[in-house]
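Just scan my protein:

——
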Amino acid sequence: MSELVLDTQLEAISPRQLAWIRFKRHRLAMVSGCFLIFIYLVAAFCEFVTPYGTEMRNVQAINAPPMSIHFVDIDGSFHLRPFVYGYDMHINDDTWMREYTENPDKRYPIYFLARGESYELWDLIESDFHLFTTRDGYVHLFGTDRLGRDVFSRVFYGARVSLSIGIVGVLLTLFFGVLIGGLAGYLGGLVDRAVQRVIEVLQSMPTLPLWMALSAALPVYWSPIAVYFGITIILSLFGWPALARQVRGRFLALREEDFVISARLLGAGKMRIIFKHMLPSFTSHVIATATLAVPGMILGETALSFLGIGLRPPVVSWGVLMQQAQNYQVIVMTPWLMIPGLFVVLTVMAFNLLGDGLRDAVDPYSTGGQN
């Protein structure tokens, strides 16, 4: 009787529900998904989350190290409200470098959901409420850069640009990959051969030098928005061939199926058959592939901006922020300027783990799904 009930329950589970059950068993993928949701929410509301804007300067703290959050003051008294100590700066007589020490007499409490520097959320809503800030002094959780700008604020402003390039680039890659690969697989013949030759040519070219050449060709006088879309399109141009080949293979297998032949006999157009009937049969696979493609887009933008031929100031992205860490002396003396690189590593790892989990969930016969 119990086996009959179990069989009935399994029959009632849809393929999507079954994929979700398999995905939940992948703990690292679940944790990675939660981390990515968190980082995207923070990036979306970075004006509110961060205490300062990208161009706010604290000229009294140039290349200052990260501040420590305290609950116990120098006298041993415990405070429910966290606080930071202000800096005292002096010049080292031997190295001529700025050196900072905490001054217990400069205690700055941290206030949550408090008023601070004014901003426009998404350039639409004017506000001055911040998740946390100080009423006196400054709070620099990730330190400051060579101009005294808050690294914590700039990291999350940069997350908005770098993460959005990954998403927009993958959407363009999906569009071109599904459309071109679908037409090649469904029509076959001359169209299929032409698409295959184009894909072979694109995949035989070294990606990074081409990215660099095309990015360097962007006009210097372009606005930051134009450069943003230019870099996104460049990254997408070389991302669709691999997906197009996968889609082509699936369509070659599906075009002789009964439901495709029935739709064709009923007079459905080619685009309707591709997008309405054939594509939904492996949407889950496309989503998993797209998830695995996002890290490549993020790394591409970071690499180009790091080399100075991608996004340029005043645009703030993780790659632009890492330009300051090109010199090994800077890394040794101000290691906190490498924090944007840490966020790149964590985000790319999270996307890869999430993609692996999605792939194992939609394909139970993959290696990961068998473990």
Notes: The domain at 156-370 is CATH 1.10.3720.10 (MetI-like fold).
